[in-house]
Specification:
Blueprint lengths: L11 E6 L5 H10 L3 E6 L4 H5 L8 E5 L8 H14 L4 E7 L2 H11 L11 H17 L3 E4 L5 H13 L5 E9 L10 E4 L20 H7 L3 H23 L5 E7 L5 H12 L5 E7 L2 H4 L12
Helix pairs in contact: 1-6, 4-5
């Protein structure tokens, strides 16, 4: 994510996006912030579209690019000049999204892709991404909405409008390796080498959320040293990622079943890792499906 704040009062936002990345939601958010949103604006006709509006009115111009039209980089540069000539200081917002997520979104919506070329949805997505790459490079604020909720998108846009850095949303996830590694995690830590509470019959049906299990997990020197190293690394990295304006971060800590050790680590991290610039959200992906009241004595699930 890049960010270059404008010099002076922000009265104009240029919105560009790959199709399916959340342009409609972004438009609604900007309207809530007091912007008048003009949709389907051709970059070459911006002067005409804004002629009827006073210089003090806040405008959000949703630019439309279609295949075979003018060069995107050139037309965007002309749009910037046209706005500055009438006293407008534009902030350029670009919305991006992972290829796989776009495929899922279009499969759910059943809407045709505007860049459809007769060779399938994936081809259309890749064609549009290639053409709009120069537009993305020129953006003041680029937001990847792949794993972002509407509330998180709102937070980023509101913070950009106010000229501040948004808090970094950090998901702290426990999981069980027996159910697979989270594919969208930026960090995956394996703590299966630590003693397993599963083999204590009293602790087996409990989880890492409970005091007895946490005391067991952190009783040894090895667990304390492991936690200390993980905590120090994350404390250092989260500050840097916030300064770099990352859109989100998912840290996953895994044990065998995602019920005891990884849950205990995530619960402790979610309390002790708090700090300015980021918001922590603990998630226990496999806790409920792995929780057992009775289990075979030799099955490793904790």
């Amino acid at each position: 994510m890049t960010f270059n704040p404008v010099d002076g009062p922000l009265n104009t936002v240029l919105v560009t996006s790959v199709s399916g990345a959340g342009k409609t939601e972004a438009t609604r958010i900007l309207e809530d912030l007091g912007f008048l949103c003009l949709n389907h604006v051709s970059p070459g006709r911006i002067s005409t579209r804004i002629a009827d509006y006073e210089a003090g009115e806040r405008l959000a111009l949703v630019l439309e690019y279609r295949p075979g039209r003018s060069d995107p980089r050139h037309s965007l540069t002309e749009a910037h000049f046209a706005l500055k000539e009438v006293g407008r200081l534009p902030l350029h917002l670009f919305l991006d999204c992972d290829e796989e997520v776009l495929l899922r979104r279009y499969a759910l919506s059943r809407r045709p892709h505007p860049w459809a070329d007769g060779e399938g949805l994936l081809s259309a997505i890749r064609h549009e991404r290639r053409v709009l790459a120069p537009v993305r490079d020129l953006a003041d604020l680029c937001i990847d909405t792949s794993a972002m909720s509407v509330a998180q998108l709102r937070g980023h846009i509101e913070s950009a409008y106010r000229g501040t850095k948004p808090d970094l949303p950090v998901t702290l996830m426990s999981f069980g390796f027996k159910y697979g590694i989270p594919t969208d995690a930026q960090f995956v830590l394996d703590i299966r080498f630590l003693p397993n509470p599963y083999y204590d019959l009293d602790l087996r049906p409990q989880s890492g959320k409970e005091v007895a299990v946490r005391d067991y997990v952190f009783a040894g020197r090895q667990a304390q040293e492991t936690y200390s190293h993980i905590f120090g690394l994350l404390k250092f990295l989260l500050v840097r990622y916030h300064e770099d304006r990352r859109s989100q971060l998912l840290l996953a800590v895994g044990c065998t079943g995602g019920q005891h050790r990884s849950v205990a680590f995530i619960e402790r991290l979610s309390v002790e890792l708090t700090g300015p610039g980021y918001q922590l959200c603990p998630v226990h992906r496999d806790l409920e499906r792995n929780r057992l009241t009775v289990a075979p004595a030799l099955e490793v699930v904790g």
